[in-house]
Amino acid sequence: MAFGGGLDDQEDVVSEINVTPLVDVMLVLLVIFILTVPVLTQSVGVDLPRADKVNTVVNPVAVTVSVNADGTVLWDGVPVDDAKLARVLQNAAQTDPQPEIRLYGDRKAAYEHVVRVMAAAQKAGIEKLGFVTQPRQ
């Protein structure tokens, strides 16, 4: 029985594609685009006030904190213990603007040493802590 479906005994297959649903969908999309394009291109003219240009870009200060393979912590290249690390992180957190802390962790350093530095930075109130890695080659 063919899709054209009659009660005939003919078994001719209809080889035409019914494009009516396709045309319906395209017409609906065309109507949607016709209605939305004017809304998107409409703008309101506003006379904005004038002001002098003020340079608001602040060059952030960056501090490097390194964790060696043996667990020693270096603050800008100077070795520090846990108590001194907490003090310098506290001082850094109170400065304005707050410096970026760049954490260099040796790949052979134990995870706990790096986490100890991260926890100290969080406790001190450091907002910007970044990990520095080398790209794979």
Question: How are the SSEs ordered, and which strands pair?
Answer:
Layout: H1 20-41, E1 62-67, E2 73-75, E3 78-80, H2 82-94, E4 100-105, H3 111-124, E5 129-131
Parallel strand pairs: 1-4, 4-5
Antiparallel strand pairs: 1-2, 2-3
Helix pairs in contact: 2-3
Helix content: 25-40%
Shape: elongated
CA radius of gyration is 34 Å
| Assembly level | single chain
Strand order of the main beta sheet, please? 3-2-1-4-5
- Please state the average pLDDT score: 83
The CA-CA distance between the termini, in Å, is 66 Å
Strand content: 15-25%
Catalogue the unreliable spans: none
User: Which class best fits the helix and strand makeup?
Assistant: alpha/beta
- The number of helical segments is 3
The run of helices and strands is HEEEHEHE
Instruction: Sketch the major β-sheet.
Output: 5 strands, mixed
Total number of beta strands = 5
How would you briefly describe this protein structure?
The chain is of the alpha/beta class.
